[in-house]
Amino acid sequence: METIRGRSSHQLDFTGLAERLVGYNHIRLDLGTGDGRFVCHMAEKRQDRFFIGIDACRENLRANSQRKLPNALFIIASAQALPQELNGLISHVTINFPWGSLLESLLGSEDSLVSRLLSVTRPFASIDIHLNAEALVTAGWTLESGADQIERVLNADGWKTTSHSWMDAHLLRSFATTWAKRLAFGRDPRAIQLSVQKE
Ligand SMILES: C[S@@+](CC[C@H](N)C(=O)[O-])C[C@H]1O[C@@H](n2cnc3c(N)ncnc32)[C@H](O)[C@@H]1O
After folding, report:
1. Nearest CA to ligand 1 atom 16
2. pTM for the structure as a whole
3. Atom of ligand 1 nearest to the CA of 96
4. 34 phi-psi bin (left φ>0, alpha ψ -120 to 50, beta other)
């Protein structure tokens, strides 16, 4: 799989990944990580855990992927083709403010993402998804109906809901992703958090 560090990219195989993960029991995946700010923030905060950020777009990752954090790794991949090297490793997934094909896949137009999420995660793994109104409206849904649809898709694939709640501008401001800050100060700061767990 292709990993990125600043302007350089490197291929990392099963063995190389296993070496990076020695000593970490919790491996977290941030899908559609954007500029990687959330991964860096969490890696600094929880040095006992390993954080992997994945995005299809490399440009936004240049700056944060250069940071020397032993427990963080950035991978360039499409969410619909998650690297085989990750199979069975991930204990928790975050998907923060998805848009485009990542959001479309969650809404169920393609089944490859949800089935790959089952493959890359461990038993009893959990997923936290944060959805914003504008992205869902662009995809042809309301915030509420889109969140309900994503919940249905996940529930049908073996992920049971543990929470489904609203986020307001105050909560968005306190959330450590670049997009959350943008939304918090934007014209439609409504979002929903959906949490599910593998059955
Ligand atoms: C609105 S941004 C959110 C970025 C970040 N999670 C945050 O909260 O700041 C959505 C991200 O999803 C990524 N994305 C969209 N479709 C994707 C796909 N199919 N595979 C991987 N990443 C995708 C985009 O490149 C973009 O970085």
Report:
1. 102
2. 0.97
3. 6
4. left
